[in-house]
């Protein structure tokens, strides 16, 4: 039975859909849609809703990227990454509901003020933790830049926008020229393939930009820009106050064209970042768990987003999202004789862009199978209850193990997602 909530009759027992959210202001825009703040109607929690036009994705041949991003985000969960919380679709859009970062993107703030080395060091160190996590999952982001870094209300930095991120295998290098040219590493343009090293170069470009107020390589001609990135010397302008030698050294380390010497690269790459003079005094475990207070805290008295996005939605959209909010998704399954290429793409979206609800996995107990809501295997961060049973064994809590014997008998011979067999 539906739960009356405002002008909508919302049933929270059904599969997650747009009616579960109250639509608030628009805060961003992408190639295929927009991002807006939404409020979950049952618990009033705020999220960021990214809605992606199916028609535009088909026109621009971008469905593969959207499916990959959707699947990849399901596997990730880190304090310094914008994590996926829900995914669903209707006739016109694919929706991804993410963690909301009320502090706005880093580009917004860099365009409005100059920051101290301390504030910039804090962000770069947090992003380094997030990048290390992504690489540990076999993910290379390929588009690290201020536009794709979001601050929460306290000022912690988070990586977002995995549209061109991809999984990488140690035995197969990447070859496509994917990313934003000014932030792309020289090995992308030299040929021969590249790997996770490109993210550390991009972080260096971002560090340079935060310190000097401009990118180290800039040219309107893309072909010339690629040549400059590959071989041009990097200039370090005089600043007032002057940039510290440790900071310059860190920038030079990240912007090392030899990947064998680049800061962050190699089996001990992150340890070298931690021990570098610019980062040496950081309490890294506390930093990664967001227990340290950021140097810069975004204003809570104003919105840290470009107000024009909201105005565009109001004035230019023929059918704003909230006017279609009460519509339920209808299956677009083709009838006999409807064999158009467009309909085939819509059918592919119907099959590939599966719903996701993180609350299902929070409740996952190991013997209740939620795979129907998952694109791949259940995320690694889902902890089966059987793990706790094994921990109890190790602690010698035999009485408690005996009380759970009924549950264990049901698990006999089942291979759980974490590789443990009972």
- Fraction in helix: 25-40%
Q: Tell me the CATH architecture of the largest domain.
A: Orthogonal Bundle
- The third-level CATH topology of the largest domain is Transferase(Phosphotransferase), domain 1
Order of helices and strands: EEEEEHHEEEHHEEEEHHHHHHHHEHHHH
Average pLDDT, all residues: 82
Distance between the termini: 40 Å
Low-pLDDT segments: 1-6, 310-319, 328-338, 383-390, 397-422
Shape: globular
Largest sheet: spatial strand order: 3-4-5-7-6-13
Total number of strands: 13
The biggest sheet amounts to:
6 strands, antiparallel
- As a whole number of angstroms, the C-alpha radius of gyration is 24 Å
Estimated structural class = alpha+beta
**For the record, what is the CATH homologous superfamily label of the largest domain?**
Transferase(Phosphotransferase) domain 1
Give the count of structural domains: 3
State the name of the first-level CATH class of the largest domain.
Mainly Alpha
- Helix tally equals 16
Give the amount of beta strand, in percent: 5-15%
């Amino acid at each position: 039975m539906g739960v009356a909530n405002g002008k909508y009759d919302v049933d929270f027992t059904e599969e997650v859909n747009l009616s579960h959210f109250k639509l608030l202001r628009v805060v961003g825009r992408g190639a295929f849609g927009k991002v807006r703040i939404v409020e979950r109607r049952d618990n009033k929690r705020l999220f960021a809703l990214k809605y992606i036009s199916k028609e535009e994705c088909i026109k621009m041949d971008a469905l593969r990227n959207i499916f990959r991003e959707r699947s990849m985000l399901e596997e990730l969960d880190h304090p310094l990454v914008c994590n996926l919380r829900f995914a669903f679709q209707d006739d016109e859009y694919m929706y991804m509901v993410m963690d909301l970062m009320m502090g706005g993107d880093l580009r917004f703030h860099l365009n409005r003020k100059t920051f101290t080395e301390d504030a910039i060091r804090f962000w770069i160190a947090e992003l380094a933790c997030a990048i290390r996590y992504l690489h540990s999952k076999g993910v290379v982001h390929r588009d690290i830049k201020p536009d794709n870094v979001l601050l929460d209300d306290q000022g912690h930095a988070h990586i977002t926008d995995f549209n061109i991120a991809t999984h990488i295998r140690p035995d197969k290098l990447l070859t496509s020229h994917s990313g934003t040219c000014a932030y792309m590493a020289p090995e992308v343009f030299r040929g021969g393939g590249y790997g996770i090293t490109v993210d550390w170069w991009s972080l260096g470009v971002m560090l340079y930009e935060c310190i000097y107020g401009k990118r180290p390589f800039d040219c309107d001609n893309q072909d010339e820009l690629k040549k400059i990135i590959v071989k041009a010397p990097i200039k370090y302008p005089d600043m007032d106050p002057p940039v510290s030698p440790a900071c310059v050294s860190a920038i030079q380390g990240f912007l090392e064209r030899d990947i064998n010497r680049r800061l962050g690269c190699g089996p001990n790459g992150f340890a070298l970042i931690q021990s570098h003079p610019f980062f040496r005094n950081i309490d890294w475990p506390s930093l990664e768990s967001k227990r340290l207070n950021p140097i810069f805290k975004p204003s809570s008295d104003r919105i840290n987003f470009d107000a024009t996005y909201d105005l565009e939605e109001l004035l230019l959209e023929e059918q704003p999202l909230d006017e279609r909010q009460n519509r339920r998704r209808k299956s677009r399954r083709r009838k006999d004789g409807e064999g158009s290429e467009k309909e085939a793409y819509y059918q592919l979206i119907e099959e590939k862009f599966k719903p996701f609800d993180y609350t299902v996995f929070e409740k996952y107990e190991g013997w209740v199978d939620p795979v129907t809501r998952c694109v791949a295997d259940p995320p690694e961060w889902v902890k089966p209850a059987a793990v706790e049973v094994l921990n109890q064994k190790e602690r010698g809590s035999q009485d408690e193990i005996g009380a759970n014997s009924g549950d264990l008998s049901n698990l006999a011979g089942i291979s759980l997602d974490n590789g443990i067999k009972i």
